[in-house]
Design a protein that fits this description.
single chain; 686 residues; 26 strands; disordered N terminus; binds iron/sulfur cluster
């Protein structure tokens, strides 16, 4: 395949549009389902405003308030502008400027020394979704790690249990996209709050409601959409699996299971039926702390409505039962026979829908140690065969986001650990770096923005020049490959070359549309009907309702429930849902109103607490000090702190992750954020 002549074949970086004010089109590759098309106003080489464009019909000219503020990151006081090395104690933030050559040499020589001493696996690359772009992750970086033989990283902090369930059941079949929501007569939003994450879904849900659709929300909080729902189930965190199993039981026992669909398109329905059998409405409702009649109403609505759509979110996966919860929820449309009509079936991550094979990673995966990223604290403080001698962090901020924060920080404080942080701003993790490398933002370089809500793919381009000496991932990982003798002469040098190589490796139809500045369309269209346009990508093209390998790997088998980890001492479930301030932890450096712990009035009264009290939230792992917000918008027995906050956002430099155990989900090795159990007490007001 070769690319077509066009503007992207320019031999050097495209000129930056200047003048009094220009509007430059690009796309948002951040970790959000929507991948908006953007219109960025630039004046004298600086970003002035960021807004949505109409190129992508789902974006429809508007974007979230988070990215509208992205200029504050580019030009803010926390931006890293040049390479630097540590001058003070780990964590105290004292660094001295060095040149890029010095920084690269220092990193490369530590890589070589670590490999000579304890082998390549003593180097741990650590990254997540700071950008979902095809250039910034799993590209030259993966090539470097594979060729050097470092430890491998299981990127499981989010979407691992739902991903494992979706893969096992459906082979990650493309799912219902936003555009088809208005076709549904029943929408169940399960463990998802699009008003905070994936805002472009909201108008489509509202349109469905206008057309008469029934809305069900299953969430421990009364979110904006829950307020307008016909039924809201505020379930105890970690119990979604039994709620879904009770619906299965009803379908099987009341004659609403679609037996002909099950025979023709599924395997394992009998085993699922057996596992659902114990979960009567009453038993499930008691376990989940909900009203049995409301649960029965949802089951009846689901059985009798068509098209019926379930949006499976990520809130339900963040606990010890998360994988089985996703299995049970995603199995519902197969058992009830809800596929085959527009707006019927399930909707979740469409990240795999383009079937993009990353052939540009030209190196086989080595058989080196696999480190689950949720065990970073253990890896840094306990692993000794080999120990982690070098940690290279990019596209993420583990000091703020990974469970058991205190252990992670203890690890980062190790004097014998050499830590490299390649970042845009001075994050909580960057403070612990031995070498700091400044990274470009998505408005300063090329990338491919791939949506995972709608099915769309767009090319992002540089809007302004990089601030200071910031460099792209392509430049820095390419440079490290060269310095370590791992780069072949014919491989791309620099970001523009790499972008052109990725374009060359994409299917012609996709690449040509991107070169021409239009949005490509996958072969099955951007709004496929499940079991009409797309089918399971499983070996026999059937839905595997009871995959044997998952039954063997789950601690208690499939569709089983592990009881609540709460104790008399720590009875409250702490959850950490997405907020309207950060994209995961990105933008956590920006000033924000006081971060508050939300608590139900009955829980506050039982503890003698009042709105705006200063409180300590604690368990055996740690303590977080913050301000209390008393509100009925959360179920009794559950409290919440926002996801993605940085240490500076609380009164004692600890975030909610300090209270989260590093236990793993039943499937997929995911993080159990919502298994934190805590108590709350007052602190004297400062
Ligand atoms: S974070 Fe999401 S909603 Fe905001 S601009 Fe990016 S893609 Fe759009």
């Amino acid at each position: 395949m070769s690319h077509q002549p066009g503007k992207l074949d320019a031999p050097a970086r495209e000129p930056i549009l200047g003048g009094p004010a220009s509007v430059v089109e690009t796309a948002c590759p951040l970790d959000c389902p929507d991948a908006c098309s953007l219109a960025v106003t630039v004046r004298h080489g600086k970003v002035i405003t960021i807004d949505g464009s109409r190129k992508n019909p789902v974006t429809d000219g508007y974007i979230c308030a988070k990215v509208r503020k992205f200029g504050e990151r580019i030009y803010g006081p926390d931006r890293l502008l040049h390479p630097a090395v540590r001058k003070g104690r780990k964590g105290d933030g004292r660094f001295g400027r060095v040149t890029w050559d010095e920084a690269i040499e220092r990193v490369a020589s530590r890589f070589e020394a670590a490999k000579a001493r304890h082998g390549g696996a003593s180097i741990l690359p650590f990254s997540y979704g700071g950008s979902n772009g095809l250039l910034t992750q799993d590209n030259i970086d993966a090539q470097l790690w594979r060729r050097f033989g470092t430890s491998r990283l299981a990127r499981t902090v989010c979407a691992a249990p739902t991903g494992a369930a979706n893969m096992a059941l459906y082979g990650k079949m493309a799912s219902i996209t936003y555009q088809d929501y208005p076709e549904a007569k029943l929408i169940i939003l399960w463990g998802v709050n699009p008003s905070a994450s994936g805002i472009h879904l909201v108008p489509f849900v509202r349109e469905a409601q206008k057309r008469g659709a029934t809305l069900v929300v299953i969430d421990p909080r009364t979110t904006a959409l829950a307020r307008s729902a016909d039924v809201h189930l505020a379930v105890q965190p970690g119990t979604d699996v039994v709620v879904a199993l009770a619906i299965h039981r009803y379908l099987f026992t009341s004659g609403h299971a679609d037996e002909s669909f099950l025979r023709a398109h599924t395997n394992g329905a009998d085993r699922l039926r057996e596992r659902a059998e114990p979960w009567t409405f009453e038993r499930a409702a008691e376990t989940a702390g909900i009203d049995a009649a409301a649960l029965a109403r949802i089951a009846e609505l689901y059985a009798s409505s068509s098209p019926a759509l379930i949006r499976c979110g990520w809130g339900l996966e963040r606990n010890r039962n998360g994988g089985n919860a996703a299995m049970a929820v995603l199995a519902l449309p197969a058992v009830a026979g809800k596929f085959g009509v527009r707006g019927g079936g399930y909707s979740m991550s469409n990240s795999a829908s383009w079937n993009i094979d990353r052939t540009w990673i030209d190196a086989p995966e080595p058989d080196t140690r696999l480190v689950n990223m949720n065990h970073l604290g253990r890896a840094l403080t306990e692993y000794d065969d080999p120990p982690v001698d070098v940690l290279f962090v990019y596209n993420c901020n583990p000091a703020a986001t990974i469970p058991d924060q205190r252990r992670v920080i203890r690890g980062l404080e190790r004097e014998d650990l050499f830590t490299v942080v390649f970042e845009q701003v001075m994050t909580d993790t960057a403070l612990y770096a031995d070498v700091l490398l400044p990274a470009t933002t998505f408005l300063e370089g090329y990338d491919f923005a791939k949506a995972y809500g709608p099915i769309n793919l767009d090319l992002g381009r540089p809007v302004v020049e990089p601030a200071g000496e910031a460099r792209s991932n392509a430049d820095v990982f390419g440079e490290l490959c060269s310095r370590l003798g791992l780069r072949r002469g014919d491989e791309p040098t620099g970001e523009l070359d790499l972008m052109l190589q990725v374009l060359d490796r994409l299917p012609d139809s996709i690449a040509n549309d991107l070169r021409g500045g239009t949005l490509p369309t996958p072969p099955f269209g951007t709004a496929p009907i499940q079991f009409v346009d797309v089918f399971p990508n499983t070996p026999d093209r059937k839905v595997d309702l009871f995959p044997a390998d998952l039954e063997a790997s789950a601690p208690m088998g499939l569709y089983r429930f592990q009881p609540d980890p709460g104790t008399d001492r720590y009875p409250l479930a702490l959850i950490s849902p997405a907020s309207d301030r950060t994209i995961s932890s990105t933008l956590g450096e920006l000033p924000r109103p006081d971060v508050k712990l939300t608590m139900h009035p009955a829980d506050a009264e039982a503890r003698g607490l009042a709105d705006n009290d200063r409180v300590r939230v604690y368990n055996e792992l740690a303590e977080v000090q913050c301000t209390l917000k008393v509100a009925p918008a959360i179920r009794q027995g559950t409290v919440s702190l926002p996801k993605g906050i940085w240490r500076r956002s609380t009164h004692n430099n600890a975030t909610g992750t300090a209270l989260v155990p590093d236990t793993l989900t039943d499937l997929g090795g995911g993080a159990c954020f919502n298994d934190a159990r805590v108590e709350v007490a007052s602190l004297p007001n400062a």
